[in-house]
Each structure stands twice: as structure tokens, then as C-alpha cells.
Amino acid sequence: MITIVGLKGIPLIKKGDDLARIIVEAAARQGIVMRDGDTIVVSHKIVSKAEGNVLNLKDVNPSPVSLSLAKTMAEDPRHVEAILREARGVVKIVERHMILETKHGFVCANAGVDRSNMEGSEWVSLLPKDPDRSARTIREGIKKALGCNVAVIVSDTFGRPWRIGQVNVAIGVAGMIPIKDYRGKGDMFQHILRVTMIAIADELASAAELVMNKSDGVPVAVISGYSYPRGEGSARELVRPRERDLFR
Amino acid sequence: MITIVGLKGIPLIKKGDDLARIIVEAAARQGIVMRDGDTIVVSHKIVSKAEGNVLNLKDVNPSPVSLSLAKTMAEDPRHVEAILREARGVVKIVERHMILETKHGFVCANAGVDRSNMEGSEWVSLLPKDPDRSARTIREGIKKALGCNVAVIVSDTFGRPWRIGQVNVAIGVAGMIPIKDYRGKGDMFQHILRVTMIAIADELASAAELVMNKSDGVPVAVISGYSYPRGEGSARELVRPRERDLFR
Asked: CA dist A83 to A50, A61, A70, A171, B199, Å?
């Protein structure tokens, strides 16, 4: 049996906050005992805030390109500028959509720049600079505080081509291999399976979203009872290299 | 708290089997009490088998196009033929990949035609003809047997552009609205959220995959403790219409 619990009562996060300590304390208040092998899923939003990876739009001067794009998109040109600065490639800019490749290689809307759940209307959050490192820091902090080995996933909410609606995915991992590889394994009848690599870190992030309601401040979930492949994995393993992508 | 349990000991499914009865009995053997508001996720593979929606390749005559494609793909031409017959559109055929639009509108590899977990090397499974209806039938069977209202999701394993690895998604739903719509709702600070529609049926399918190990015969999961929007939804709501798809 797998269980998923959302951590409530996590305070507003400020730059410099120790997320591992805050998570450990919130779990303790709820009577949740974290154990070896648990997975802790953390919304990237609080990671970015703790790391100070946020931007005040009043400090952003839009370029001519941002001004022009902002006009067609009916957007704040400083917001468009903030988005373009976070990108290293354009996958598609059309109508009011900007699907970009982030500096990490993730393909998502607005290069992960987001105004939601930010105090004050002029602030935007950026993705963490190195989400694997952020996950590692939280993992090590929990290990130090409680002595147990958990996996940590930093999550964001991404759209998908072909399908309506967004789902949570993993943008940073620590203490786990994010993909379960069934290639070459037999199925129930010992056929060789068609190429089957399951993106378990993305599935864990999606499962956690079910308790991380967007609007009510549950930025952390604890998943117990799932046995992931342990190891020093990276969310970069989930990024399809541009040259192996059929859709770029 | 959300809990996810995989149902073990489900027998090999044959054409005509009553899946609702089989699920109810398997749950009872494991001491699982299904309750109002639970979500039952069922692998499409056993649905297709129960509905006889399988094909023996020895009954398939490949067309010249299938013969030609099979050569470049080093595939059985009858398998290629079976795949093309299930498609209503081509998204991309390149090297050894066939990304097709199924008759239902889903975009996936091989139009959902699959040889894994099939008895005998000549058999392939197709997607259920009407996966929403399949889900509805199971939902009604469970209601009849136990008197409780569950949601049912029929799932399949799909790849994604841009990201490595496959995840489970919903191809049929009953008793739930598959998308949670936050548009126009405020966040913690009462900003209007950027367009945010969460594909909860896909997230539930992904969560269920974590207990539905590909190779060891756990084709059904019971999810408790998640409050989905009730109603007569359809997995077609998860399909992005071709004309609103940025990537076709």
C-alpha cells in the first residue's frame, strides 16, 4: 500500500529559510514519522522562494522584442522579458503561448516563470537554478535531522501536447533513479516487452499533486510505501535530448 | 491521506469475463472494502481482453504500405498492419516510431496496439472500442454488487514529447470529471491564477501505476481518500482538439 499525505501549516517561505527543518517540523506537528524509503515531494515554488530565486518586475527593463511580444500577448512586457531571460531556446511562440526550453533543458510554458502564490503583484518566481541540488540539500537536511534516507522530488506543473490539462512532473530529484527500466525484462508470458521505461519520478510528482491543492498552501507531500530504485539520479535523465526528440 | 492498493491474484482474463465481479472478489480476498468516492484504476489490457478486443496476427494480411513500413522498422508487417488499422491519423512516422492518432483521438505510439502480456506470441491487444463505456460498465457492476459509488478510470501507458519515459494516463473515465478547473480562482494571495486546469484523471492513473507493476500482473488499483469532482465526465475531455493543438 502506498500512502500520500500533504503537509499543512507550512509558513510563508522567505529567502534563506531552511526547508528541511521546516518540513521536518511540519511533519512532526501532524504526527507524521518520516521513514527510510519515503519520498518527499516539494513544490518548486517554495524552493525558489527559499533560494531567493524570485524577481521583482519593477527591476526588469523589457527589450524591444519583449515589448513587441507583450503587445500581441496582452501581457506585461516586463513579465515577457523575465520569461525570455530564463529560456535557452524557443520551442513555439504562437498567439498567447510561449513554450520554451529552460536553461535546464525542460520544455514548458513561460520557461517556468510564474506569478501565482507570490506576495505582491510585482513579484514572479523563477525555477530553481539547480533543482537536483535543491532536492539534495533537502534530503541531506532531513537525514541530518532524523537519520533517515528519503528521496526528494522538486515538482512543477507542466502542460502536455495532445492532452488537455496540466500534471505535476519532477524537475529535481535526489536519492532515487527517476526512471524504472523494464527494457529486456519479460512480461507475464516472458515476451520481451516493447521499450518500456516508466518515468516514476513524474508519476510520484503527479500522485503528490493530488494532495497539493494549488490554492490552499500544501507545498509538500510525503509518500510512503513505494519502493523506488535508489541511487544518485538526476531529473536531467527525464529530459529528452533535443536530437532524440521527434517533436522538435 | 490518500491510499493506493494494487489488487493481486486477478486471474488471466478471457473474452466475456465480468470485470466488475472479478474486481469485487479480488478486493474482498485482500480484505479491501471499497467505499463511496474511491477511484478504481483498471489497466486497459484486461478491459480489451474481456471485451474480446484482441487480434491474432495470423488473421491479418499486410497491405503494401505495411510491408514497406515494416521493412524500415524491422517489425512484423502484420503487426504494422494491425497498428495502421487502429489509427485515424498520422502524427509522425519516423525511423522505428509510429506516433498515431487513434480512432478515439488519443495520440500515442502504435495506436495503442500492444503485444505485451498477451498469451501466445501471435496475439496483440487493441484499445477498448469505447473506454468510457467500459469504465461505466465496471462502475455500474461495482455499484450493483456493493451498493457504492466509485469512479472508474481505464488506463494506458503513454510516452511524452520532450520527456524520457512513459507514464500512465486515463483513456476512459466514469463517475468523475477528469479535469479540476482552477481558472478564475484566486491563489493564496487572491491573484487570478494563470490558466490552470489539472488533469486529475491522468494524475490518478499515474499514481495507480506505482502499484501496477508492468511485469507481475497487478492490473487494478484502488485509490481512497481523494475527492474528485463527481459527474458524468469523459476521457474525451482530456483530448486536445487537433485545431487547438500547438504541436500538430
From this structure: 20, 12, 11, 17, 25
Residue B83: its H or E element:
helix B77-86
- Rounded to whole angstroms, how far apart are CA atoms B21 and B144? 10
| In contact, B173 and B152? CB cutoff 8 Å | yes
Delimit the CATH 3.30.1330.100 region(s) of chain B.
3-51+130-237
Q: How confident is the model at residue B186 (pLDDT cuts 50, 70, 90)?
A: low
The 8-class DSSP code of residue B137 comes to H
**CB A163 to CB B199 under 8 A?**
yes
CATH 3.30.565.10 is held by the domain B3-51+130-237: no
* Amino acid (1-letter code) at residue B22: I
Whether A190 contacts chain B with CB within 8 A: no
pLDDT at A7 over 70: yes
**CATH node for A3-52+131-239:** 3.30.1330.100
How do strand A54-56 and strand A123-125 relate by DSSP bridges?
A: antiparallel
Q: Tell me if chain B has a CB within 8 Å of the CB of A119.
A: yes
Residue environment code for B175-198, b if the CB has 16+ CB neighbours within 10 A, otherwise e: bbbbbbebeeeebeeeeebeebeb
| Amino acid of residue B31 | G
Residues of B in contact with A94 (CB under 8 A): 246
Cell of B122: 501471435
Give bridge partners of residue B223 from the DSSP assignment: B4, B39
Q: Are the beta carbons of A214 and B161 separated by less than 8 Å?
A: no
Q: CATH 3.90.1660.10 in chain B, residues?
A: 54-125
Say whether domain B54-125 belongs to CATH 3.90.1660.10. yes
Shortest alpha-carbon distance between residue A146 and chain B (Å): 22
Summarised one tens digit per residue, pLDDT across range A221-246 is: 999 999 999 999 999 999 999 888 88
Cβ of A107 within 8 Å of Cβ of B162? The answer is yes
Q: What's the pTM?
A: 0.95
Cell of A51: 533560494
Residue B245 — very low, low, confident or very high, per pLDDT cuts 50/70/90? Answer: confident
